[in-house]
Design goal:
The protein is an all-alpha fold. It has 19 helices and no strands. The protein is globular and about 65 Å long. The two termini are 16 Å apart.
Amino acid sequence: FSMVFSSLIFLYAFLPACLLCYMAAGSMRSKNLILLLFSLFFYAWGEPVWVILMILTGLFIHWAGLQIDRTRGTPRSKRYLAMAVVAALSSLAVFKYLGFAVENINSLTGLELTVPKFNLPIGISFYTFQTLTYAIDLYRGNTKVQKSRINFLLYEALFPQLIAGPIVRYADVALQIDNRKMTWSGFSSGLTRFLIGLGKKVLIANYAGQLVGKTLATGLGSLSVIEAWTGIFAFALQIYFDFSGYSDMAIGLGRLFGFDFKENFNYPYISSSITGFWRRWHISLSTFFRDYVYIPLGGNRKKQVRNMLIVWGLTGLWHGASWNFIFWGLYFFLLLWLEKKVLGRILQKLPAAVGHAYALFVVLIGWVFFYFTDAGSIFHMLRLMFGLSGQPGWRLEGGLLLRENIIFFVIAVIAATPLARNLAKILTGLPRQDRRKRLVTWAAMAVNVLMLFVCTASLVGSTYNPFLYFRF
């Protein structure tokens, strides 16, 4: 099993040991080596075999980068870039998509080819894209070559963002790899950010996941309309707090060691359009496809619809080798295209509340494609949600479930807005000479301790601690 941030062994063994060894190391070279060794151990804990694949991928991309830099300005430089791209994407294609491709070939042709089955290497989609940003940006002249193998492997394998992002571009952390400082303010803010993410994951996402288990996972045939909506809303909360919580923990952990990762989520459920939603959801993935696929294809300048179709087909496929993910990506392509052509102008003329309701509604529909992997379940769920399945609109069990968890839903909805963040900004923005400033500082420390205690108690008392984005 994999070591996740929201596990007792990570919180009370791995992280303290890593911090102690890191702080004991003298030079930056030693600190980087310590971080690399701990990162490889972290990955090998759950993937003792596939850690070799990650190392070999990193070493090859590093070598290709040296050749790109050495032959800059010649045709050979482009060939080395092509080698790097093929090497990175080929491992992703084999381990993530080969089985899916063979299954579809068999279905279309009637052949009976053996379908290869692999345990998907954890985080392969993330570290593959990260190494690609290095090779492409180096070729474009947007970053400098990294000559140290250790430093490059550290960039690829750095445990805070290794298995679930955010996708960190080499150009954004190149200077930090060789020159960074571990400060008290950075450590303090990093710890707070980590614990916020831990609370999102353990206290909200895990509980929402249990509600999904009591509704959608029990079988659609026994559900009422209200239970179907309750289940998909719970899933929307689970996947948001699960993934944004993990991103918060990654950003916080990075700060502990002096790294500054970019934001990956910005309260997407407050969006008033799907265009706005995708500017706020999984930002590092959206900007990756924008900068490395959409714009090189021509962006808005030529064949915009084709470019959007390719990007959103790839976005769906990135999430998994399954048709439901492709349909999920194409569903958002259609919505974004409609917003560009017609809907966007209409939404701008309507009250903001209408835009928010529209965005939330279509996102919830989208999560149906994401959650269910077979077409039969998808269409059954959609018919059920709109009262077209012949199943009751209300059942006593569903009403009780909703009533028992209404407080949880209210808290989760508030937590999905910037209300708490804005309040914290107001409190921390008090004049430094004000005595309340010290009270706020002590209160923040007390909240951190309380959050760690409550999350620990929850982890000790429950065996339910999944992480959805491991499968991507």
